[in-house]
Structure formats: structure tokens, C-alpha cells
Design goal:
Layout (H helix, E strand, L loop, with lengths): L7 H29 L20 H12 L2 H5 L6 H35 L4 H15 L7 E2 L6 E2 L1 H26 L8 H33 L35 H26 L6 H26 L4 H24 L5 H11 L1
Antiparallel strand pairs: 1-2
Helix pairs in contact: 1-4, 1-6, 1-10, 4-5, 5-6, 6-7, 6-10, 7-8, 7-10, 8-9, 9-10
């Protein structure tokens, strides 16, 4: 048990952890909107403890003058109007302050539950590690000056997104473990059949995560605009310039053609893998909840691929691009639920099930 102090405590702690996970989900979506609207470099002066936004027209003019000295304004947004600057500024400000709000929303209940003795040492260490990882999020995503067009480094963007996904998955898995200490297992047959699914579900879950992270390199390199055709990339299946960068490894992370091709291959492999899992599971005697999760995962994978193709063909509009990223996290959510539901029950539960079936 991860939570003590009576039957009511797990419910309260679970609600708090799931609420924190939902907040992280919204952070990822808001971060996607910030990236797609190119708002990430709009704030030129930001303290680690936070900053007040401009509160008067004079302060807005001062802030705009600072932005006019930035490489992004000089090379990309020269001639931008004040109204447009306010929009990208508020987008980035909202993203940063939403993250600080998450820190408060997480820390205060955490302190309360620790004080009440609800949280065991094991759970406390796990949550502390997730909190520390979240606190470090603000140190990632700074601008790099080596690019012709100023932008956040794709490596930093990928690290930022990977960290957010890790925090989200950690919170979601922990919350599920708090409210559901044992997986749904009411017979030995269901336990044994779930073990067969687990051999496929775990690597597929990792593939879903890798595919989502590859999307960060697509966004970071603006690779979504490299080829807006499908299934071919332009007039060919494989572009001629996919190995044009030296050293060779840079092609996989910085070459826009290769980055988009990699993402297409990973997305296709993800869909086929989940489809194979769904087909294999139809021949197994599984708990109804597990079967429903597999079906939902299959449906979400198909919708996400369809949404990704629509986003590409539409030249990556903000609405579709945001929905595509939210879909990636939703698919990962379903894989977390599935893997948590098919984990091995405790030895005591397995023994009781075997005794009941004898």
C-alpha cells in the first residue's frame, strides 16, 4: 500500500495526483499552442522566480522595445504590430505561469498529506522525484543563437517534452497504483492471459512514447512544412537529401526531410503494432476492462494517424497541430492504463485465486 491512514486517504490522495496529471496534460497542450504560434521567444526578460507582465501602455512599449532588439524580431518578425506582440507575449506568459501554478497546486497538498501521515516513505520519495523533475522544466527550452532563424533548439524542445511526458506518466501510474493497488483479476485464467498481452503492450507503450518525442523534433525543426503531401514526400517515397548533413547522426535530428520521414515511419509502426495487439487479443480470454482498453487504444491510434495526415496536408494549422499533440498524449494515457491493468497481481492475490479455482 502506498497510502495509509484509513480507507478515505487513498481516494483523497488519488484525486490530488490525478488532478496534477490532468494539469500536466493541459501544460503539454498549452506548450504545443505556444510553439505553433511561435510565441516561445517573445519574453526577453524573465526571472526564475517569475515576473509581472506589463501593466500600462508605457510598460508595454518598453517590453516591445526590448523585443525589437532580439534576433527573432530582426530576422523573423520585423515590422510586427504591438497587438501581435501582445498576443505572443501573453501566450508565453500564460505557459510559464501555468507551470508555476502547477508547482503550487502540487506542493501544498503534498505537504498537507505528509503532515497527516497519509503518504508512505515509498510514495513520498517517488512524488518528490517527480516534483524535482517538474521544477527543472523551467531550465529547458532557452533560445539558441546558432540558427539562421532564431528558435528554441530542437534538442531542448525534445528534452522539454520528454520531461513533461515522464512527469505525466509517473503521476498517472502512481495515481493508478494508489486507487487500484491490484489489477483487475478475478480468475487465474485472466491473470495468465493478461501476462501474454503484457509481453506486447510494454514495448508498444515505449514505441508510442518514442513516436511522440520524434514529433518534438518535427516541431523543433519546422519539419512539418518540409513536405505537405501523403503518402509520398513530394514526388518520391524517400527524399534524396535525407543524408545531406555531416556528421551523419545530425540527419536524424536536424535534417527536416529525415526528421519528417522518421516520424512517418514511427507513426506507421505504432499503428501496425497496436493493430497486431488488438488482433492477437481477440483470441485471448481477457478481463472485460482490459479488452475495452485495447479496443480504445486501437481506435485512438487510428484517429491519431488520421489527424496527423490531416495536419500535414493542411500545412500544420494551430488547431490541428494542437489536437495532434493532445492525441499523442491521449494514446500514451491509454497505454499507461493498459499496462497498469495487466501487471502481475501480488503473490497473495494469485495464491487466493489459485485456491479458489482448485
Amino acid at each position: 500500500m502506498l497510502v495509509t491512514a484509513g480507507p478515505r486517504a487513498p481516494k483523497l490522495v488519488g484525486i490530488w495526483i490525478f488532478g496534477s496529471a490532468a494539469w500536466v496534460f493541459s501544460m503539454v497542450v498549452l506548450g504545443g499552442v505556444t510553439r505553433l504560434t511561435r510565441s516561445g521567444l517573445s519574453m526577453t526578460d524573465w526571472k526564475l522566480t517569475g515576473s509581472l507582465p506589463p501593466l500600462s501602455e508605457e510598460q508595454w512599449l518598453m517590453e516591445f522595445d526590448k523585443y525589437k532588439q532580439s534576433p527573432e524580431y530582426k530576422r523573423v518578425n520585423k515590422g510586427m504590430r504591438m497587438e501581435d506582440f501582445k498576443f505572443i507575449y501573453w501566450m508565453e506568459y500564460a505557459h510559464r505561469m501555468w507551470g508555476r501554478g502547477l508547482g503550487i497546486m502540487f506542493a501544498l497538498p503534498f505537504s498537507y498529506f505528509l503532515h497527516k501521515g497519509y503518504i508512505t516513505t515509498r510514495l513520498g520519495v517517488r512524488l518528490s522525484a517527480l516534483f524535482a523533475l517538474g521544477a527543472g522544466q523551467g531550465l529547458i527550452g532557452e533560445p539558441e543563437s546558432e540558427y539562421v532563424q532564431p528558435r528554441v533548439s530542437p534538442y531542448r524542445l525534445a528534452a522539454h517534452l520528454t520531461s513533461a511526458f515522464a512527469i505525466y506518466c509517473g503521476l498517472l501510474w502512481t495515481g493508478l497504483s494508489v486507487v487500484m493497488p491490484e489489477p483487475p483479476a478475478e480468475s487465474v485464467v485472466w491473470v495468465d492471459e493478461a501476462a501474454k498481452v503484457k509481453r506486447l503492450a510494454l514495448p508498444i507503450g515505449l514505441l508510442v512514447g518514442i513516436t511522440a518525442i520524434s514529433g518534438a523534433f518535427v516541431a523543433g525543426n519546422d519539419a512539418g512544412h518540409a513536405y505537405n503531401t501523403f503518402p509520398k514526400m513530394g514526388d518520391t517515397w524517400i527524399p534524396d537529401d535525407i543524408f545531406s548533413m555531416k556528421p551523419l547522426v545530425r540527419n536524424f535530428f536536424e535534417n527536416t526531410s529525415t526528421v519528417q520521414l522518421d516520424h512517418r515511419i514511427l507513426a506507421t509502426a505504432t499503428l501496425l503494432s497496436i493493430g497486431s495487439l488488438w488482433c492477437a487479443s481477440r483470441r485471448l480470454d481477457l478481463h472485460p476492462a482490459v479488452r475495452t482498453l485495447i479496443g480504445s487504444t486501437m481506435g485512438m491510434a487510428a484517429r491519431r494517424v488520421t489527424l496527423g495526415i490531416s495536419t500535414l496536408l493542411s500545412y500544420v494549422p494551430v488547431s490541428l497541430g494542437t489536437a495532434h499533440q493532445a492525441g499523442a498524449l491521449t494514446l500514451l494515457t491509454l497505454m499507461i492504463f493498459l499496462n497498469h491493468s495487466i501487471r502481475r497481481p501480488s503473490p497473495s492475490l494469485v495464491k487466493a485465486l489459485r485456491s479458489a479455482s482448485a
